[in-house]
Every structure is written in structure tokens, then in C-alpha cells.
């Protein structure tokens, strides 16, 4: 199938973007240089087109109760204007997707799934509506998302022309507020996937170009750059954030993926039943066979996704994501490894094209921004 194009495709093309098929969308991989884009986000700010992400609207008297049942976390206790990270699992406790849910009103939420999982997620959640009094709609194709990420992101957003500057300054992490930016009504959220402060601006497709242009114009004297998926991936990996299909999946339990605390909170504090509860409760009774760890290379050879972790002739795990870290100056990786080997401080050998390279198990995340 031909990949879909976002409303900003022509803008990326004019900027000389290299494109890649990601989740069924033709997305900018990089513009001039992905490492430069990465550094721009760490040092000033980057502007991303994330319009390939999904948006589901949940509205009705039972909106909170429906989400409590459909997702692992307790969404009905969210305050209006707040957001929560959670997972969608099947009856066996396998992770279908990780997603963010925003509470927009007492009876209204917006759920944001990953691009590659929009169809599966919508079908799965639709099947769980049952007798709940809700309207569950997929607004993904009519919604665009522009993100401004980096230490200067607040300054950039304010310079774009905001109807309520105090609302932007006072917006907390994992929260959202409706405002007008550059003359465009939007939902402004303060979340992100880079390890930096940042904002996501949800708008109708017809308004995406206005927001995109305003962000780049506001940051032109501050070192702000348009940033593609390559930089987004290296940034999220440094920040120790999972990517579905790498650190998360149907064959990776939440406990293996480091999301055990999220599940344990649901099992102990959530009164409502939810899909997968019984299977997850059984998993919680014993330690996971594998654990997600951070790895730091002792030398300069990077390990890529799919490389195996070995103990002599024994395979003990696999790299899920790996890069030469632009910020830290050495290769880092995340890996699923047998739990007995997952202790911080251990050295694990990685098979890189037939040669073994030593990596040290380290705490995640690899990078933390200064507050």
C-alpha cells in the first residue's frame, strides 16, 4: 500500500527532507543532518510533525468507566486537564500498545495511540465498548500534531502568539489546555518523547501549516530546527523511553518491559475490572524471566536492534534498540536479558557481526535533563 501523507508533507519536501515509511505514513526521517537535529533539541528546540499519531475521542456519561475497563490504568480518577500514560493489553496480558490519555472534560477524553497501531487499537477498544454509554470515535485522519521539544520550547511557543500566556507558563507536565496559538484554536499538551521539556499542539489538518510555520519562525534566531524521526528515535533512546515493536509488544510482558509498577498500581488500587487483569495478576506472582536493561559500551562499536547478548556460547538476550549516543559520545542500547544477568554493574557481551563487544549494565535513563 502507498504510505499516507500528512498535511505537512509538502512543507517537509521543500525543506529537503528524506522520507521513510513509518507506520504506513510517509514521514520525514531527517532534513539536513539527524545528529544536528538531535543536538538542536537538546540545546534549544526542535519542531516535529507527529501527525501520523492517532487520536481517539471518548465522550459520554460512562467515558471514565469505559477507559477503566479498556486500559490497564485508572482513568476515571484523572482530573480535567491532566494526562496519564498507560497500556492496552489483551486477555493474556500481552501489550497491544502504549498510549497517553488526556481528560478534556468530566465526560470527555482523548486517547493517543502509536501510528502503526491505530487500526488495531481502535478495533480492540471498540469491541470493549459493550453497554458503556459512550461515543468512541477515531479522529486520527482529520487531526494533525506539531511538537516543539527542547529547553527553549516554552519560549518558542510563547513567541508564536498565544491567547493566554499564563496558561502556557503554568501548564504542568502531563497536562493539557485549550488555547489559541498563531490564531489557531488547539489543544496544547505538555508531554513528549525526547527527555526534554516540550509541547504538543493538536490542530485540524487545515491549520497544521500555520502552526508549523509559526514555530519555525518563532525559533529562527534561537537555533531551532525541524527534526525528523531519526532524531526522535535517538532522543527517546537516550531518555530510556520504550518504542512499540522494540521494547514493547505482544511477546513482551509489562513486567519484562519495566512497566511492572504501572500494573501493580492497577492491581492494588483500581477497583474496577479491566481486560487482562487476571493474567497480569498471575504474572505478578513471580519475577519476570527477562528484564529490560540499559547498556553502555566499553568501546566505540554500537550494538543495533537484533544483536544477541551472550554468555560464552549461551544466548541470554537481545538488543531492542541501540545507537551511538550524540549527547553522551558513546554507544548505548536497551536490551531484554535474562533477569539473572540484569544487575546494574554487570558486564554483558554483545555479538556484533560475529565479534563480541563488552557492554556494562547501567541505570535507565541514560540522559536526564537539568531541571
Give your account of this protein's structure.
This protein is α+β, with helices and mostly antiparallel strands and 371 residues long. Among the domains are: 9-54 and 142-238, Gyrase A, domain 2 (2-Layer Sandwich), CATH 3.30.1360; 289-362, Aminomethyltransferase beta-barrel domains (Elongation Factor Tu (Ef-tu), domain 3). Helix content is 23%, strand content 32%. It has helices at 9-14, 34-43, 63-70, 118-126, 153-159, 165-170, 208-218, 229-238, 260-269, 277-283, and strands spanning 18-22, 25-30, 46-49, 56-59, 83-89, 95-105, 108-112, 135-138, 143-149, 176-181, 184-189, 198-204, 225-226, 290-297, 308-311, 314-324, 331-338, 347-352, 355-362. Strands 10-11-12-9-3-13 form a six-stranded mixed β-sheet. It has a six-stranded antiparallel beta barrel with strand order 14-17-16-15-18-19. A hairpin with a 2-residue loop joins strand 18 (347-352) and strand 19. Helix 2 crosses helix 8 (229-238). It starts with 8 loop residues before the first helix and ends in a 9-residue tail after the last strand. The mean pLDDT is 97.
Amino acid at each position: 500500500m502507498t504510505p499516507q501523507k500528512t498535511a505537512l508533507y509538502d512543507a517537509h519536501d521543500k525543506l529537503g527532507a528524506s522520507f521513510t515509511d513509518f507506520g504506513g505514513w510517509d514521514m520525514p526521517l531527517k532534513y539536513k543532518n539527524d545528529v544536528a537535529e538531535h543536538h538542536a533539541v537538546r540545546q534549544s528546540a526542535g519542531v516535529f510533525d507527529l501527525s501520523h499519531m492517532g487520536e481517539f475521542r471518548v465522550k459520554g456519561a460512562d467515558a471514565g468507566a469505559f477507559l477503566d475497563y479498556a486500559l490497564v490504568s485508572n482513568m476515571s480518577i484523572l482530573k480535567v486537564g491532566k494526562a496519564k500514560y498507560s497500556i492496552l493489553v489483551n486477555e493474556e496480558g500481552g501489550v497491544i500498545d502504549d498510549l497517553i490519555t488526556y481528560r478534556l472534560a468530566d465526560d470527555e477524553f482523548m486517547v493517543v495511540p502509536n501510528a502503526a497501531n491505530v487500526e488495531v487499537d481502535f478495533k480492540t477498544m471498540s469491541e470493549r465498548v459493550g453497554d458503556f454509554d459512550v461515543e468512541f470515535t477515531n479522529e486520527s485522519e482529520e487531526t494533525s500534531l506539531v511538537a516543539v521539544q527542547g529547553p527553549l520550547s516554552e519560549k518558542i511557543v510563547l513567541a508564536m502568539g498565544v491567547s493566554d500566556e499564563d496558561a502556557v507558563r503554568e501548564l504542568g507536565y502531563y497536562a493539557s489546555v485549550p488555547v489559541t496559538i498563531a490564531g489557531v484554536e488547539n489543544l496544547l499538551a505538555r508531554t513528549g518523547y525526547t527527555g526534554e521539556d516540550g509541547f504538543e499542539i493538536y490542530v485540524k489538518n487545515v491549520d497544521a501549516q500555520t502552526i508549523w510555520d509559526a514555530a519555525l519562525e518563532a525559533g529562527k534566531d534561537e537555533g531551532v530546527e525541524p527534526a525528523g524521526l531519526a532524531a526522535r528515535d535517538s532522543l527517546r533512546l537516550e531518555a530510556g523511553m520504550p518504542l512499540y515493536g522494540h521494547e514493547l509488544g505482544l511477546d513482551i510482558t509489562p513486567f519484562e518491559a519495566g512497566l511492572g509498577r504501572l500494573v501493580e498500581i492497577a492491581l492494588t488500587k483500581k477497583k474496577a475490572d479491566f481486560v487482562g487483569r487476571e493474567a497480569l495478576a498471575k504474572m505478578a506472582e513471580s519475577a519476570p524471566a527477562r528484564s529490560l536493561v540499559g547498556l553502555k559500551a566499553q568501546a566505540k562499536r554500537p550494538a543495533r536492534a537484533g544483536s544477541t547478548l551472550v554468555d560464552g556460547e549461551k544466548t541470554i538476550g537481545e538488543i531492542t534498540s541501540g545507537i551511538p549516543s550524540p549527547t553522551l559520545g558513546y554507544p548505548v542500547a536497551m536490551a531484554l536479558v535474562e533477569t539473572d544477568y540484569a544487575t546494574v554493574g554487570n558486564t554483558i557481551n554483545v555479538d556484533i557481526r560475529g565479534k563480541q563487544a563488552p557492554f556494562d549494565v547501567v541505570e535507565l535513563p541514560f540522559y536526564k535533563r537539568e531541571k
